Queue: 3 jobs
Job 1
Amino acid sequence: NLPDVRHQKFELRVLLKNPDNLPLLIINAHHCMQNGTFKFAVVLYQRALERLPRSAFLHLCLGLCFLQLSTVRYTQRPYGHALEAFAFLYRYKQLRGECQETLYNLGRAFHHVGLLGLAVNCYEKVLQLKPGQMRWNQQGTTVHESSILSAKGIPMSINESHPLDLR
């Protein structure tokens, strides 16, 4: 773990010398997410988003970051963070298009905050879509289909919401 910390410190020093370096911004934001410093990650992701405002990936990252902020114990406004999270996640869905990937990610986000009815709804939509091998979207990136993961997520959600009904 010590080499990882040294590597992260090196990347931070390089970022301080080159604050406009987009890949370093994103890498350091990922490190902040990994270390649990979500507020710093939000700042770095937002700086990156200023440079790439139509990036579905950055909207997903910011949505997940705000989602994590909404569920930590020390947060001042968990509902506000949850609203921001879902605003970014729905923007991600809009930029990426409604496909199995985006619906599955939304379902997992709903599942994470305990909105199991909405999670099951998203998972069911994923299963209704025709599974494709892999397809390209307008930005020229691949969209991975995830109906198998959704099929596993539905029973988990139902089991968490009604554990006694399934015994």
Job 2
Amino acid sequence: QGLLRSEFQTFINYNVKLFIENATCYASVEDITKVAQTMLEGVFHNDTPKTFSIVYKARNNNSLNRDDVIKAVATVATDNDKWKDSVKVHLDNPEWAITVDVFQSIAFLGLLPDFVLLAKYNVDNLTAEWMKKDEEKEGEKEEEKEGEGENVVAPVEEEGENVKSPTEKKEDTPSREEVAEKIATSTDPSSNAVLSES
């Protein structure tokens, strides 16, 4: 999944399903068996434990029997039960999927790892989980931004008659101009004396 996302993110935006095939042949049980032998020998015919399933699809072809093809390919996978102890069928979550796609008179065979894990190579289903996670991350970021805005607390004004803003003038203290005017208009000699001394 990481490889598909990092290397082919732009590519898969314009595709629905990856159609991966390893070999082609004439659509007959005999030819499919021969091609499957060559394709599976190096991977399946050894002591390494592995599981597989066979995925068969046919379009515009009525000459092949589905069960006959699946039985022939399964026999090749286990090499006539020679490797039956290490090669097991697992339909739910196989390590390998042997795909047989028949279109008219041509058969396409593929050997695909992690078939179920990679959503059967369906790009829409494969990227749906990525998109969901990206949307969840975006939602979390939006919630964090909204939370930061709500946490800003305005300063609380203290109650009381004596609390005044810094710009508010004190009513009890006269300004210099008012003091000078009072002194100038005063007829009291002591006031003039105080003014001259200051």
Job 3
Amino acid sequence: DLFHVRNEDHHPENGTLLGFWLYLMSDCLIFACLFAVYGVLGRSYAAGPSGADLFDLPLVAMNTSLLLLSSITYGFAMLEMQRKRMGGVLLWLGITGLLGLGFIGLELYEFAHLLHEGAGPQRSAFLSSFFALVGTHGLHVSFGIIWLVVLMVQLPKHGFTAANRRRLMCLSMFWHFLDVVWIGVFTFVYLMGSMA
């Protein structure tokens, strides 16, 4: 039969992981563009405040610690998945999510403080590029937390199926990618910006 479709799996092995790597590379380009914009506009203060005037480095260092620690706890969740321990996976994913929420909470606090000081994105090109870069990263972390919660609901229902293991692996790559991006933000935006 010419039009008969056989019920076979036409997806290549590890196709999802390859596709997810391609997505991460496209995300990398987005962040590269945002870093480039910040690099060009990061000293355009329009007679307004600079990073040295605005940034609270101890707060940002605490925020950085939360995100980096969440990467470690996600690693523990992956180790528990390899041992097929559902309780351990859910515990470490829960801790990772809480650390991620702490990161987002501190970032929102920082943004609210800047807005209260009159240092919103419309104040200068520096602040526009700052809010675009840091805000985009924060949105990615928020999406990662939602994804994490969805997995925490799926895992007890369906167990360590191949699809769930693959989803955990993809989220792991996404979460660690966000850590690497944040290290760039912390260094390039906050540390160097505080010295300006």
